[in-house]
């Protein structure tokens, strides 16, 4: 499946604020790499800076300094982050680094000693201090007024809503808990209030994100405060009452997830679950330090579909994990055949500095990893193609993301922005605009995308 255009990819987001710069106003640029959770951090930083009187530059040349929000999850992501920092230094020269890779300041300064400052993930105050040093604020209280929704790096009709930070899992391939700490859930009333403001500002779809959405509220002992309980089921019900699409990401398949399915069947939240299964063989899962319950997971999936037949399931998997045998990989293929997931992605395992998986024996050869990745994606693609073909002739609701001279690019309830498929309308689309939710008849299906008419 081809990548979305860079202008709407979260991992290549650059802030653009349609506003003239006043005389003497300090200006900051932002490059945001990595996952949607990092994108939310970038939006918060820019919102704070706008409130202090800074303008936001869409390019390097117009900025007094540039913030690069980095990703440090995989070695390939680290390399991309270093490249982005180098580009910002070359084009602007005054660069502040933050984000996950900021947890390793020596790694950054070793490659780029001229950066102005390095801060870790979600260290907003430290980023602001660094910006103040690089370009002191000069606010004008009569001009620098910020809308209640703050600065957004996504199209105005959808928004990521982060409900917690950190993670209590100890997966051997992951260093996110080391970078972002243990689970810290936001108060439920604060999340609902933020969601209300977003919907009032025109947001039609709320994408709920965290490191572990299912665990939301555990650290707060599921407390009730100001009429809202800090539990994912209660939170989903509260958000569903706002009459926007509510899409859940990063949901671990704990038993209480089954309580969310009736909310989907009733149309309160979207019938969509993004679940990081990672693998299916119990021995592989054990080496990953993941729950080894693949068979019971199949039972859970069957139970979910019995309650909500329209549910769409997406997941990601790791192929070529240390010690993965051909038999273990075949188990994964067989499991995928039975699970029939709607949206599937895969990664070839790679070492991450500081991860415990690096020390495991029997690392898989690169050519074997590539072969398994190709075989896995071939099967996933065939499943996707068959599932989409079954939608031809159906009438479904879609949300419009973009309209240009060639047609409208839309998404179904089964498609999250940037990571899933699209539905394209190439006739009669002139009346549409981004954010519209309309009903279409599906005319044609491909491997990952659909085509339809109003």
TrEMBL record:
It comes from the Bacteria. Binds 2 [4Fe-4S] clusters. One cluster is coordinated with 3 cysteines and an exchangeable S-adenosyl-L-methionine. Its cofactor is [4Fe-4S] cluster. Residues 153-386 form the Radical SAM core domain. GO terms for biological process: tRNA modification. Residues 26-136 form the MTTase N-terminal domain. GO terms for cellular component: cytosol; ribosome. It is found in: Cytoplasm. Residues 389-454 form the TRAM domain. SUPFAM superfamilies: Radical SAM enzymes. Keywords: 4Fe-4S, Cytoplasm, Iron, Iron-sulfur, Metal-binding, Ribonucleoprotein, Ribosomal protein, S-adenosyl-L-methionine, Transferase. Its EC number is 2.8.4.4. Pfam families: Radical_SAM, TRAM_2, UPF0004. It catalyses: L-aspartate(89)-[ribosomal protein uS12]-hydrogen + (sulfur carrier)-SH + AH2 + 2 S-adenosyl-L-methionine = 3-methylsulfanyl-L-aspartate(89)-[ribosomal protein uS12]-hydrogen + (sulfur carrier)-H + 5'-deoxyadenosine + L-methionine + A + S-adenosyl-L-homocysteine + 2 H(+). One of its GO terms (molecular function) is 4 iron, 4 sulfur cluster binding. Its main location: cytoplasm. InterPro entries: Elp3/MiaA/NifB-like_rSAM, Methylthiotransferase, Methylthiotransferase_N, Methylthiotransferase_N_sf, NA-bd_OB-fold, Ribosomal_uS12_MeSTrfase_RimO, rSAM, rSAM_horseshoe. [4Fe-4S] cluster 1 binds at residues 35, 71, 100. [4Fe-4S] cluster 2 binds at residues 167, 171, 174. Belongs to the methylthiotransferase family. RimO subfamily. HAMAP family: MTTase_RimO. Catalyzes the methylthiolation of an aspartic acid residue of ribosomal protein uS12. PANTHER family: RIBOSOMAL PROTEIN S12 METHYLTHIOTRANSFERASE RIMO (PTHR43837), RIBOSOMAL PROTEIN US12 METHYLTHIOTRANSFERASE RIMO (PTHR43837:SF1). This is Ribosomal protein uS12 methylthiotransferase RimO. It comes from Paracoccus amoyensis.
């Amino acid at each position: 499946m081809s990548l979305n255009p860079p202008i709407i990819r979260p991992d290549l987001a650059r802030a653009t604020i349609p506003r003239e710069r006043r005389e003497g106003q300090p200006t900051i640029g932002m490059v945001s790499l990595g996952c949607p959770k990092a994108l939310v951090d970038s939006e918060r930083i820019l919102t704070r800076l706008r409130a202090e009187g800074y303008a936001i530059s869409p390019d390097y040349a117009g900025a007094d300094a540039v913030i690069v929000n980095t990703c440090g999850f995989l070695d390939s992501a680290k390399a991309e982050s270093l490249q982005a920092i180098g580009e910002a230094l070359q084009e602007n020269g005054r660069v502040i680094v933050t984000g996950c890779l900021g947890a390793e300041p020596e790694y950054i300064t070793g490659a780029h000693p001229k950066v102005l400052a390095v801060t870790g993930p979600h260290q907003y105050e430290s980023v602001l201090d660094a910006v103040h040093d690089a370009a002191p604020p000069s606010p004008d209280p009569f001009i620098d007024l910020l809308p209640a929704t703050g600065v957004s790096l996504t199209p105005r009709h959808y928004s990521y809503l982060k409900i917690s930070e950190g993670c209590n899992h100890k997966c051997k391939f992951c260093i996110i808990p080391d970078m972002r700490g243990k689970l810290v859930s936001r108060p439920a009333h604060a999340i609902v209030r933020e969601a209300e403001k977003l919907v009032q500002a025109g947001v039609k779809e709320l994408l709920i994100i965290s490191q572990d959405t299912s665990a939301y509220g555990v650290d707060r002992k599921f407390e009730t405060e100001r009429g809202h309980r800090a539990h994912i089921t209660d939170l989903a019900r509260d958000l569903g009452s706002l009459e926007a699409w509510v899409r859940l990401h990063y949901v671990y398949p704990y038993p209480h997830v089954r309580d969310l399915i009736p909310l989907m069947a009733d149309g309160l939240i979207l019938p969509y679950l993004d679940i990081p299964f990672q693998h299916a063989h119990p021995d592989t899962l054990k080496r990953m330090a993941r729950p080894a319950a693949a068979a019971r997971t199949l039972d859970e999936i069957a139970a979910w579909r019995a309650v909500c037949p329209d549910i769409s399931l997406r997941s990601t998997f790791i192929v070529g994990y240390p010690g993965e045998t051909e038999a273990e990989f075949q188990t994964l293929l067989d499991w995928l055949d039975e699970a029939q997931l709607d949206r599937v992605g895969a990664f070839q395992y790679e070492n991450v500095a500081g991860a415990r998986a690096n020390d495991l024996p029997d690392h898989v050869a690169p050519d074997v990893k590539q072969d398994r990745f190709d075989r896995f994606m071939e099967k996933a693609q065939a499943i996707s193609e068959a599932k989409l073909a079954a939608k031809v002739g159906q009438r479904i609701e879609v949300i419009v993301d973009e309209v240009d001279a060639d047609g409208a690019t839309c998404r179904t309830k089964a498609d999250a922005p940037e990571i899933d498929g699209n539905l394209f309308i190439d006739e009669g689309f002139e009346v549409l605009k981004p954010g519209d939710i309309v009903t279409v008849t599906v005319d044609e299906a491909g491997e990952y995308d659909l085509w339809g008419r109003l």
